[in-house]
Write a structure and sequence with these properties.
Distance between the termini: 24 Å
CATH architecture: Alpha-Beta Complex
Number of domains: 1
Helix content: 25-40%
Structural class: alpha/beta
CATH class: Alpha Beta
CATH topology: Maf protein
Number of strands: 7
Largest sheet: 7 strands, mixed
Shape: globular
């Protein structure tokens, strides 16, 4: 077991400011780098398989650049009741279509998580589910919301940490952080499995400052 003050360097395989803000809550030093991978689903690929595959691919894409690090990869999609997958809309028209499809529905958000030890190549992966029940949304409400918040880089076309909270009637899941993009409870479990106690490590790091 590594000593807590010898925590391996962490790398977040993401340029997302939302994931960076979430990881910063653990009060552990980390680097950020953006992986360059193809995020297209494979033919017939299920949502759970997709997010786990992409989370690991993001982490492994940085392994040669960051040897001897623990690399965190994450990816998120929304899965409708009929099994259709919603990814990042990237443009207004697609976001309108996504929210219209989510209206009055319970949508499962799946966040893939990978913790890769680049020194050994060993990867731990999981998919964290979180269910969101949407209100019935009228066309004008969807248009107004998207113009205000422009969540075009968010799977499902909303920002839960912002005005997007007004779109919902209920949540169900273990960790609401997964909706923003990084399941911190699951990440804490993976770090502890590597012998890293985030509380102890954060305390010792603070003593050295």
């Amino acid at each position: 077991m590594p000593d807590a003050h010898l925590t391996p360097d962490l790398v977040l395989a993401s340029s997302s400011p939302y994931r960076q803000q979430l990881l910063a809550r653990l009060q552990l030093p980390f680097l950020c780098a953006s992986p360059d991978i193809d995020e297209s689903p494979l033919p017939g690929e299920k949502a759970t398989d997709l997010v786990v595959r992409l989370a690991e691919a993001k982490a492994r894409a940085l392994a040669s650049q960051y040897p001897g690090h623990l690399i965190i990869g994450s990816d998120q999609v929304a899965s409708l009741e009929n099994g259709d997958i919603l990814t990042k809309p990237h443009q207004h028209s697609v976001a309108c279509q996504q929210l219209a499809r989510c209206s009055g529905q319970t949508v499962r958000f799946l966040t893939g998580l990978c913790l890769l030890d680049s020194a050994t190549g060993e990867a731990s992966t999981l998919a964290e589910p979180f269910d969101v029940s949407f209100r019935r949304l009228c066309e004008q409400e969807i248009e107004d919301y998207l113009r205000l918040e422009q969540p075009y880089d968010c799977a499902g076309s909303f920002r839960m940490e912002g005005l997007g909270i007004t779109l919902f009637t209920a949540f169900s899941g273990r960790d609401p952080n997964s909706l923003i993009g990084l399941p911190l409870i699951a990440l804490n479990d993976l770090l502890r499995a590597k012998g890293i106690n985030p509380i102890r490590a954060a305390y010792l790091n603070s003593r050295r400052d």
